[in-house]
DNA sequence: CTTGAAAAGAACTGCCT
DNA sequence: AGGCAGTTCTTTTCAAG
């Protein structure tokens, strides 16, 4: 774990929301010179605070209008079973995120599809046939809001 | 919805995973010249395919070792109730994502906390006291894997 | 830490095939 | 639509105070 002062936290917060902000622009907003801000960003990068820079896509514009969250409870879950499941689920292109969780479910999947009938196809032919699948629960996303998080 | 050819899809896929790639570097990888690649990126941007550039954070390194997914069923859910709930939930700093969903739950929250006892505090004092909260289900994240998605 | 400047690289523009 | 050559801009990096 890394210790950050208030300025560092402001930088991290800003870059988490908009990674295109330059060191100069950020510095101006925080009352720092361009090199000073740049060095801080560099230090944070070397400390491994940033895991990657991603571009968020507008999936609707790309023809994927349906996002569904699946909670999956495995029927049998030895070590082999988990690995089999994970390997099989990784082969489904419509699966965006695989989360291994502890609680009522064993896995949570974020699945995108073109429409509901496309999702039905994925669910019946790909999800329900996964090795070891027990109970499956689905929640269809209506809207999603991202918040700054605890650093905000 | 927008029509993309194979090259466009390769560009979108690449930028979704690494937004720092320059038009020149991307073009080389795809057998395109720098201006050709740049013009495609520009066209995609103007079409609104990209929604924003975010920097993924290593939350563990920042001292937030616990991520929990909450499914929340409201007890009462008229229009006012939904708005009250959303406003109240937006005031909790530990909440990273708020998803309005259709299915067994009404909302799904992604919550981060420093550790489990910190999470307990958030759950008892912030979540359980939200207006209209009925049933709450929690799944603690063990690991998370992002996949390229249907464009990959 | 700052200012100032140089170097590198990326973004953008016309023109041509 | 793609490529080439060139210009302009930003970002990065290095001085020196």
TrEMBL record, chains A, B:
GO CC terms in record: cytosol
Occurrences of domain HTH asnC-type (ranges): 4-65
Alphabetical list of Pfam families matching this protein: AsnC_trans_reg, HTH_AsnC-type
Keyword RNA-binding: no
PROSITE patterns with a match to the protein in the record: HTH_ASNC_1 (PS00519), HTH_ASNC_2 (PS50956)
TM segment ranges: none
GO biological process: regulation of DNA-templated transcription; response to amino acid
Keyword Cell membrane applies: no
This protein's UniProt keywords: DNA-binding, Transcription, Transcription regulation
Name of the protein this chain belongs to: Transcriptional regulator, AsnC family
Organism for this UniProt entry: Salipiger mucosus DSM 16094
A single MF term (Gene Ontology): sequence-specific DNA binding
UniProt superkingdom: Bacteria
